[in-house]
Retinol dehydrogenase 11
Amino acid sequence: MQWWPGAATATSLLHDVELIMPAVLTVVVPLVATLCFIRALTSWSWGRCTNAMAQEGKVFVVTGANSGLGKETARMLAQRKARVVMACRDMAAAYLAVEDIRKTTPNGELIPMQLDLASLESVYTFAQELLADFPQIHVLINNAGLSIPDEKEPMTEDGIEMHFGVNHLGHFFLTNLLLERLKESAPSRVINVSSLLHRHGIIDFDHLSKGPLPSQKSGNLPPAYCNSKLCNVYHAMELGQRVGDSGVDVFTLCPGWCYSGLMRHYNFPWYKYITIVPIAFLFMRSSNKGAQGIVHCALEENLPKNYGTFGFYRNCRPFTSQTPFDPDIAKQLWEYSDNLIKTQAPSIVKRVLN
């Protein structure tokens, strides 16, 4: 007896499902197991910071510490009892980050301070407050970064292309303002968080502070972001050359492809998500996993400088880029950045000199 119209159809469908389910499971289960194995294998290759030594009395400055890689870096340093200055643009987000970190560790000292890398005035103010409050600074971690669709043509407060201004120039200025204190606190370190995307960057001094080259805009990668990440490496190269044997060691690193909120300004169409999700499952790492490399460069003793004046790391190991870095370009970028600050913010430069 049929209790509702179509009961026979439903029964037939259930019977069909029962027939095909073994075949489906025969395919799906091995596929899922294989994907999980690849994920585990990939994750194992990422490396981790094994230095658990207490960092009491050490002062670490982490830019962009309110989220993503910066927050996880601050968390791991606090776990090791360090004093961590969390340099953040959004102070409300900074205090929420402190609250979140305190759920996992009571150790260390977390000091939120305001820093907007899109404003040279803010960089100068932050540096002066930091120098007044901290007689020693042991590690500067230039982590903060952003990626915004280039068609929006974002500019900083000082009229500089946003990626170059925030990801490179703000950190360049900050590093210079803190450099003497870092030397006085030696042994100390400066760490620039770059990206594997530096390989797609181009240093063209006619366009660098204005935006990417027109020829770069036809690709799928964010050109201005790639350019800024290449600048991070060249900054480390020239900085390492200039500090010499002063006791300040310089490193740059690629933290890997991470869930860090970096791409929050992008709106991808739904069909791209379908493509990205399985790839992300296999190769994308958490912010905690990505921060392992940052903390490794900050803490590990006797790290080799595989590029002579500086070290380049990925997966907690020395990394050799496919890009042939030119020391002359590194020097030119330093001079270009220095002159740009003098041109765009002359009143701030006068205060620095005085």
Observations:
- The mean pLDDT is 87.
- The CA atoms of residues 117 and 179 lie 17 Å apart.
- The chain is about 50% helix and 10% strand.
- Residues 55-353 form a domain with the Rossmann fold fold (CATH 3.40.50.720).
